[in-house]
User: Which sequence fits this backbone?
């Protein structure tokens, strides 16, 4: 089981939704929670810095400290009410750097899908993507709308035989061992691509059973004319999945982050929580 779960905290209205998701998973796994308060640091330097600018900077810092204390106290109170041990962390780095740094000593990190209407959230360019690529831990992304009282009873796992999908299976193992139903989704672009470069489903199924997971049900979908992201979300709806497990495909180049097309697409249109592994 997961023993420590980290969750991103900020002043946005989506913070409560992901905190409740974290509490639900922590209760299920008898884990402790770590709340990571992350917000963009105020500017440190000004051209022609004046006393007025210095005072404005101090006011900004004081307001941020007040907001941080309020959010952290609410998080600790919610965890205490659920009888879950909890701690808090914070620093003045960027949100993704802060969450990645503190989250590396956790089994799982929970963040929210980007919600541009959530103006009080700790926004940053490609916050979720950067966290996925730099944390070194599986990241559970909670959609910006919807209620998710249970996560992990009915799981859709995306398998293509790649390193990323194999890593995702291992990272999600604690959740999958507690699942009631597991569906393995494989996708292709027609008959010519089926079975190319991947282990057989029977091998995968026997591995899952050896790991104490439910014997998976296999579903194959053709993505031609539909796309990977839509195919995954359609399958999740068809099988009433409350969690999707998949690899996150991406790379860094000159500090510009680029996610694979499927990952970027599904991050924009997701309807159920998704556990990404990179």
Assistant:
């Amino acid at each position: 089981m997961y023993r420590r779960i980290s969750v991103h905290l900020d002043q946005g209205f989506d913070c409560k939704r992901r905190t409740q998701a974290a509490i639900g998973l922590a209760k299920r796994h008898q884990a402790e929670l770590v709340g990571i308060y992350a917000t963009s640091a105020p500017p440190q330097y000004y051209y022609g810095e004046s006393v007025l600018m210095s005072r404005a900077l101090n006011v900004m810092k004081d307001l941020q400290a007040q907001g941080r204390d309020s959010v952290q106290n609410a998080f600790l109170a919610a965890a205490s009410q659920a009888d879950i041990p909890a701690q808090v962390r914070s620093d003045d780095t960027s949100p993704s750097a802060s969450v990645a740094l503190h989250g590396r000593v956790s089994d799982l990190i929970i963040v929210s899908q980007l919600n541009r209407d959530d103006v009080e959230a700790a926004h940053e360019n490609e916050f979720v993507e950067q966290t996925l690529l730099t944390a070194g831990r599986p990241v559970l992304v909670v959609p910006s709308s919807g209620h998710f009282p249970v996560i992990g009873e009915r799981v859709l796992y995306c398998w293509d035989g790649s390193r990323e999908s194999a890593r995702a299976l291992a990272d999600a193992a604690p959740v999958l061992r507690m699942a009631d139903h597991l569906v393995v989704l494989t996708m292709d672009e027609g008959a010519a691509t089926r079975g190319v470069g991947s282990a057989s489903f029977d091998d995968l199924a026997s591995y899952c059973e050896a790991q104490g997971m439910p014997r998976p049900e296999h579903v194959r979908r053709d993505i031609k004319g539909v796309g990977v992201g839509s195919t995954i979300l359609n399958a999740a709806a068809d099988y009433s999945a409350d969690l999707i497990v998949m690899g996150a495909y991406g790379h860094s180049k000159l500090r510009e982050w680029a996610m694979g097309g499927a990952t970027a697409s599904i991050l924009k249109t997701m309807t159920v929580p998704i556990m990404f592994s990179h």
